[in-house]
Protein backbone atom coordinates (compact mmCIF):
# COMPACT_ATOMS: atom_id res chain seq x y z
CA UNK A 1 0.00 0.00 0.00
CA UNK A 2 1.28 3.43 -0.75
CA UNK A 3 0.51 6.69 1.01
CA UNK A 4 -1.58 8.13 -1.85
CA UNK A 5 -3.88 5.07 -1.89
CA UNK A 6 -4.27 5.25 1.87
CA UNK A 7 -5.15 8.96 1.80
CA UNK A 8 -7.59 8.51 -1.11
CA UNK A 9 -9.27 5.69 0.76
CA UNK A 10 -9.67 7.79 3.92
CA UNK A 11 -11.00 10.79 1.97
CA UNK A 12 -13.64 8.61 0.33
CA UNK A 13 -14.52 6.86 3.57
CA UNK A 14 -14.88 10.23 5.36
CA UNK A 15 -17.38 11.32 2.68
CA UNK A 16 -19.31 8.07 3.04
CA UNK A 17 -19.51 8.49 6.82
CA UNK A 18 -20.63 12.07 6.32
CA UNK A 19 -23.36 10.95 3.89
CA UNK A 20 -24.57 8.32 6.37
CA UNK A 21 -24.72 10.69 9.32
CA UNK A 22 -26.25 13.58 7.37
CA UNK A 23 -29.02 11.29 6.09
CA UNK A 24 -29.60 10.03 9.61
CA UNK A 25 -29.69 13.57 10.97
CA UNK A 26 -32.27 14.50 8.33
CA UNK A 27 -34.38 11.48 9.29
CA UNK A 28 -33.82 9.81 5.93
CA UNK A 29 -33.12 6.16 5.21
CA UNK A 30 -29.37 5.66 5.16
CA UNK A 31 -29.27 1.89 4.71
CA UNK A 32 -27.93 2.07 1.15
CA UNK A 33 -25.10 4.38 2.26
CA UNK A 34 -24.31 2.16 5.25
CA UNK A 35 -24.12 -1.00 3.17
CA UNK A 36 -21.87 0.70 0.63
CA UNK A 37 -19.55 1.91 3.41
CA UNK A 38 -19.44 -1.53 5.01
CA UNK A 39 -18.35 -3.08 1.72
CA UNK A 40 -15.83 -0.31 1.15
CA UNK A 41 -14.33 -0.83 4.62
CA UNK A 42 -14.20 -4.58 4.13
CA UNK A 43 -12.35 -4.14 0.84
CA UNK A 44 -9.95 -1.69 2.50
CA UNK A 45 -9.20 -4.18 5.25
CA UNK A 46 -8.69 -7.05 2.79
CA UNK A 47 -6.30 -4.95 0.73
CA UNK A 48 -4.60 -3.78 3.94
CA UNK A 49 -5.32 -0.14 3.14
CA UNK A 50 -6.90 0.49 6.53
CA UNK A 51 -7.27 -1.03 9.95
CA UNK A 52 -10.35 -1.42 12.13
CA UNK A 53 -9.07 1.04 14.73
CA UNK A 54 -8.35 3.72 12.12
CA UNK A 55 -11.83 3.30 10.62
CA UNK A 56 -13.45 3.51 14.06
CA UNK A 57 -11.56 6.72 14.89
CA UNK A 58 -12.56 8.30 11.59
CA UNK A 59 -16.20 7.34 12.11
CA UNK A 60 -16.18 8.85 15.60
CA UNK A 61 -14.58 12.04 14.29
CA UNK A 62 -17.13 12.50 11.48
CA UNK A 63 -20.03 11.66 13.83
CA UNK A 64 -18.82 14.35 16.23
CA UNK A 65 -18.56 16.87 13.39
CA UNK A 66 -22.10 16.13 12.13
CA UNK A 67 -23.99 15.67 15.41
CA UNK A 68 -21.82 17.58 17.85
CA UNK A 69 -21.66 14.56 20.19
CA UNK A 70 -19.89 11.22 20.17
CA UNK A 71 -21.64 8.03 19.12
CA UNK A 72 -21.76 6.89 22.75
CA UNK A 73 -23.25 10.21 23.88
CA UNK A 74 -25.92 10.19 21.17
CA UNK A 75 -27.23 6.67 21.72
CA UNK A 76 -28.80 7.40 25.14
CA UNK A 77 -30.54 10.42 23.58
CA UNK A 78 -32.28 8.15 21.07
CA UNK A 79 -33.39 5.84 23.87
CA UNK A 80 -34.66 8.80 25.86
CA UNK A 81 -36.54 10.06 22.79
CA UNK A 82 -38.29 6.69 22.46
CA UNK A 83 -39.24 6.66 26.14
CA UNK A 84 -40.53 10.23 25.92
CA UNK A 85 -42.66 9.34 22.89
CA UNK A 86 -44.17 6.43 24.81
CA UNK A 87 -44.82 8.56 27.87
CA UNK A 88 -46.53 11.31 25.85
CA UNK A 89 -48.42 8.93 23.59
CA UNK A 90 -46.61 10.41 20.57
CA UNK A 91 -47.13 7.50 18.24
CA UNK A 92 -45.86 9.44 15.22
CA UNK A 93 -42.38 8.48 16.41
CA UNK A 94 -43.30 4.84 15.87
CA UNK A 95 -44.68 5.41 12.36
CA UNK A 96 -41.09 5.03 11.20
CA UNK A 97 -40.33 1.32 10.63
CA UNK A 98 -38.60 -0.32 13.58
CA UNK A 99 -35.76 -1.49 11.36
CA UNK A 100 -34.98 2.10 10.39
CA UNK A 101 -35.13 3.27 14.02
CA UNK A 102 -32.83 0.42 15.09
CA UNK A 103 -30.32 1.24 12.38
CA UNK A 104 -30.37 4.91 13.34
CA UNK A 105 -29.74 3.94 16.96
CA UNK A 106 -26.63 2.03 15.85
CA UNK A 107 -25.10 5.08 14.23
From TrEMBL:
This is Uncharacterized protein. It comes from Arsukibacterium tuosuense.
